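so the lab meeting is tmrw and i was supposed to have these ready like two days ago... anyway. pasting both below. for each one the top line is the aa sequence and the line under it is the structure tokens. i havent really looked at them closely yet so no promises
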Amino acid sequence: MNYGQHGRTLLQELKRSEPGHNVDSSASACTIPSYNDLVVGNAIQDLRLHCQALQDQVEATTNNAADSKPSIHVRPSLLLQNAAVQRNKRCLLTYHVVRLQRIQEELYWKQQTNESKVDAKTTNGNLCPAERVFLQEYADLVRHYTRQATNGSINDLRSYTSMPPQPSDRVLVRVMVNMGPMVLDSGASAVLSKGSTHFLLYSDVEEAIREGKVLVLNGEEDE
């Protein structure tokens, strides 16, 4: 047992692969290092040994009695073993979560928009089998959601944000020209006085938007 040093090694690998820390100063330096199966296995084994040592010490000092407490002489050792268990868990979780986040960004989203500066085939070789499955299932999930959210009209979810509002969408608008009380195409009525803001169907204000009589606001009222 090395009290969390294997986990520390894993995190140092991730740190060294970050932009600015990578020994390869080129723009194409990969931020997803090869999956370190050996050190991950050692960290998991270390975690199991600490858990077993913790259990053995508790059982030895309490004689398996439910209401007894460990001797005060072994409590420092118990705290040390527990701290090692928690540290290993945090390091292992952080290592895998950060890798998955980088896989999503570098091998899916940036590849979709050609922003990635890394070679996808080379980087794929750095993934473990479970990470390759994750990448494939993540891509399938995004495609499935995109088809549902856009009725199959687009393939790339990110491009959806640049699409014009659909007739059934509601938009926040500010009136630039005083138009007074009006009955809109949908049957709704509104008092469109200059400077007022309204949350209306896009189809109701589409013509006014083109004519510059109303201004579409980006989610919140502009100052």
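ok protien two:
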Amino acid sequence: MKLIGKFVDKNGTGYVNLRPEDDEDMWHLYNIIQQGDLVRAPAIRRIQSVSATGSTESHRVKLNLTIQVSRVEFSSSGAPSSSADQTSSPAGSSSAAPTTTSALHISGPVASENRHVKMGAFHTLDIESNRDIRIEKVDGWDSVALARVEEACVPGRGAEVGAVVCGEGTAAFCLLSQHMTLVTHRISVPIPRKASAPGTSQYEKAMAKFYAILYEAFVRHIPYTSPSLRAIVFASPGWVREGVFNAMITEAGRRGDKTLTKALREKTVKVHVSSAHVHSLVEVLKSPEIVAQLKETKFAREGIVLDKFFKMLGVDEMRAWYGPDHVRLAADRGAIGTLLISDELFRSSNLDSASDPKLRKAYVELVEGVQQKGAEVVMFSSMHESGQQLNQLTGIAAILTFPLDVEVVEAEEREVREEERRQQETETLDGGGVG
């Protein structure tokens, strides 16, 4: 993401001009833009005009429109699948970085004068890469939104891990960046059961076909020449990953692809996982090999912290709290050491309660409050497996610095409320007596 222009005063009033460049930038915009914001971006509008003779003509006009956001929709790129019947690409295919295929649609009434479009007319902006977009927040920019803009504009980003999660005859190709996990491709090849003498040859032929298709898919969908790619992961149950890696090395050597051979030897990490499903990426990110190599990346940090929370929940549940109400109680007592919170709670959507500005403001104040007390805040991306797991726990959790009994704390809160109620009744009676 490029920061084209920014003016935000100390009260949070102002605007930001951004230029998205890839899928992750679209995801950042989806998390930055809220209902009620004023968004200005290029648009194409069909205009009808009436000639002097009374005939109606219709033509398209390119213009910049400003709308007041009422709905934001994001769709990530789909992962096409290959079967054994599909034709493989020619030998010697080179690695290509995936193109921007995520879509961001912003809808709402037109909020500024335009000679082609009436004020209040409904329009949907289709945000495109390398096209500038201006965002102005009517209620002001809060600290979470500004931090997201700064994070999105850090140069040199891109996919940091290319992963192939495979089983016998199946493989999913994934790219992991700071905020997104994209499944770029899937393949499936029927593999007969490995049997004694007569069936073995059929099994070996099927596996050879699987390796060939996997190789072609790898060079197409994993950008192994990219400087930002820090690791290539082969993950599988059993020993499938060993066979896949050896087949990749052998084929790259046969084709004389020195670049791929070097990348495989220098960047490959082989990890055992419990299943050949994409959800196994959570296990990948917790593996010691990946932790050691990627400990400074955001998504690895998410996996480590979530694993620490679940372990704490198992051994000392009084130091592992989750749910908005309980986490707020822990924050009020200054007990939070690490706050785990999903970006979904800050996002505008017609389908969930995050569209309530008051609720977003409450979460922002919670984050700012625990940060001021010295706690660590880990913002989870719901486009990563770890973020989706946190969302299943209400999207917010905390690791406490000292144990607190939930029942005792709730009892204390009830006593405080009861005391406040009695004081109010007393003041009411005293006021009535004076009258």
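from a quick look at the 2nd one: The radius of gyration is 27 Å. Residues 123 and 186 are 36 Å apart (CA to CA). will dig more after coffe
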